[in-house]
Amino acid sequence: MCMRLILNARNRTVTAPRRKPFGAALLLIGLLLLTSCTAIVLPESWAGLTVDGTLTEDGRYTDVQYLYVAYRDVIFRIDLTRDGIGRTLEANQRSTDRYVDWAARANNNGQMFAAPTLEKRPEGVRVYVGSYNHAVYAFAPDSGQRNVPLANWAAPIGTEKVIADALINGNLLYVGQGDKGIKAFSTESGALVASFEETTFGVWAAPVLDADRNTLYFGAMDRYVYALDAETLALRWRVEVGGAVAATPLLHDGILYVGTLTSELIALDTKLDSRMAINNQSERILRRYKAEGWLWSTPTLVNGTLYFGDLKGYVHAIDAETFNPRWKASDAERPGGIRGKVAVVEGRVIAASEGRHLRAYNAESGAVVWTSSPAELERILGDVVVVDETVIVTTKSEDRLVVAYDLLSGGRLWSVRKPSQDDINRLAQAPR
Amino acid sequence: MDFLTNPFIVVMLGLYNLLGESLVLAIIVFTILSRVITYPLTRQQLKSSKRMQEVAPKLQALREQYKGPQNREALAQAQMQLYREEGINPLAGCLPLLIQMPILFGLYGAIYATLGTTPLQFLDVQHRLLIPDLSAMLPLKNQFLWLNLGQPDPLFILPVLVVVSTWLQSKLMMPPTTDPKDPSAAVARNMTTIMPLMVGLFSLSFASGLSIYWVASNIVGIIQYAMLGKIEWRNLFSSPKPVPAVAAPKGSPTPALEERRREKEAAAPATASKKRKLSESMERPAPLGAGGSGNPRSHSRPDLSRKSTQAKPNKARKAKK
């Protein structure tokens, strides 16, 4: 590096300066420091919301005290009966926030893309959620180990990244794998009980269980819908549906309704005794309905009508028997895709969109009943749930991560932000 | 950049379909196509940089002559005049680069979007598909050998290839320097080391599909430069050889410039002869004090200041009278 260049040119010698190695070295060190100091861009998704309550036939949850939310590497619980500082709310008392009474962080920055799955146990609720960090966590909010996952419960090495919500069936926890297949873990220890790895792409949504037939149904990103034995995860049949399936199917009366990323809603007959090879039983496909955009949510079935939103921003109402459209509506003023599941309560279809608003449509006619106000800071990508007289969604904003609206008017009632590390530490030490 | 990225996504998906659903082939062919399409711009850029290299000795001479901050303005004027005489637009090298940059960003964005592995990235693709039927192809098969093309290479082979190919390209294309003291030459030398490392560092965390694009782009770039005969193979094993800085000043232009001048003369003799006269007048010793440099060698240097070049036609006019 410290060489000198002697140049002869027309009897004149030009001596090059010493090349300073320090400049390059300093630049390199600076660059390395810069790289290491720069926050790693973590993969992200939308918040998953689970209601701990009873889902009634009219589409709303009742007897609800807690909501569980997983977003990025934090999972927390909202107590709906208390205000932001923990005071118990009287009936009809208003407050613009709600109390977070438990929060925990995933190990190693594990990003959680799924909604928490709840298991009621004698010692208290147990919460399961998978992470993009190749892990499945179990939390016990009411135990001594509060702000970290349970140390004695661990999914084995070889677990892939998880995007899908989990499903509990007895002592089995089914978890779709982000790259390939689905696995069943023991809810007691996290040990692997069974696995199915014959999908060519990931499983991004929770399976649905047909307890009568002991069969598990799910769609995969490889454009197939699978039916597996619920105990052994052995393949019973599969159907190619033409597009990737990213949402949990709806099972009703032996008919499986599946939305695809080719903008189709497909009805499959699960009761059929097909003579076709199990690898592609296309005769199970009963009907197809073409929407405007991708379908990334589970349809909601009410009184023989299927309601669902698409990613072009349309809400569809179609006859479940015939797939004949009843109405289709969109918000031209506030365009944005509808990713989450719509809620249908009291003759209203409530859909949340990337346009940062909620909209309620008349379930019969599709006429607009209300549009929520004010607008959210970020797009709304989560499912819409109704708890008593309140519509609750999750947004992409950490400041107003969980937001509640009035079911009748669409006015905003309260919101809860994502807990910080200080909140998590404080809550872990708080007396029970 | 969506207006470029979105059509590129369509092209990318089309190639993927045509090439037997091979994402690696689609990325490589896409990279080659984009390089071929932007080839006229690359060539233009190279020509321009070559012309700049040809006049570099003269520029260096000017810099020597107009040393010091007090001569900065005079130096700028002299340089501009030199550019005018040689018919060089100093920005001509940047313009093709500026046109290429959005294309590169669009291409990069298209590859990044189609490799999306998280739900949010995937959601974004839906809004970018100009042809909705292309949804049926998604997600793309992103497994290739040991690689998941949407994830960084776990064996670090691709980052190494990225570093080596970027280093090779920058090393082979480094132009000869006229003056080792020139700070821009030093920066160029440092960049030859730092750039590949920087790109390599990035590729440690980027999707391996993007690293494949990077390697393919570097290789195609080297081939293109080789086809143009611009590659400095000797740079591989040594520092770039400096071009004699004072070979040209005493009025004798570089052989390439001379050749170009002859060509121009043949094409337009009248204009060329005028230029030659101007050039000859520049080569004459400047009147004492006109250079104002106080440099003992300044009398033998071309004086390109406006003052001196304007003075000579006046003399000629007087002589006519």
Walk me through the structure.
The complex is a heterodimer of chains A (432) and B (321). Helices cover 6% and strands 40% of the residues of chain A. Chain A is mainly beta. Chain A is built from 2 helices and 33 strands. A 4-stranded antiparallel beta sheet of chain A has the order 3-4-5-6. In chain A, strands 10-11-12-13 form a 4-stranded antiparallel beta sheet, with no helix packed on it. By secondary structure, chain B is mainly α. A two-stranded antiparallel sheet of chain B has the order 1-2. Chain B is elongated, with a radius of gyration of 26 Å. At the A-B interface, helix 1 of A face helix 6 and helix 8 of B.
List the helices and strands and how they pair.
The complex is a heterodimer of chains A (432) and B (321).
Chain A: E1 6-9, E2 12-15, H1 21-37, E3 48-55, E4 61-71, E5 74-79, E6 99-105, E7 117-121, E8 124-131, E9 135-139, E10 166-169, E11 172-176, E12 182-186, E13 192-196, E14 208-210, E15 215-219, E16 224-229, E17 235-240, E18 250-252, E19 255-259, E20 264-269, E21 285-290, E22 300-302, E23 305-309, E24 314-319, E25 325-330, E26 343-345, E27 348-352, E28 358-362, E29 368-371, E30 385-387, E31 390-394, E32 402-406, E33 412-416, H2 421-429
Antiparallel strand pairs in A: 1-2, 3-4, 4-5, 5-6, 7-8, 8-9, 10-11, 11-12, 12-13, 14-15, 15-16, 16-17, 18-19, 19-20, 20-21, 22-23, 23-24, 24-25, 26-27, 27-28, 28-29, 30-31, 31-32, 32-33
Chain B: H1 2-18, H2 23-37, H3 39-65, H4 72-86, H5 94-114, H6 119-128, E1 143-144, E2 147-148, H7 157-172, H8 183-205, H9 208-227, H10 255-267, H11 269-283, H12 306-320
Antiparallel strand pairs in B: 1-2
Helix pairs in contact in B: 1-2, 1-5, 2-5, 2-9, 3-4, 3-5, 7-8, 7-9, 10-11
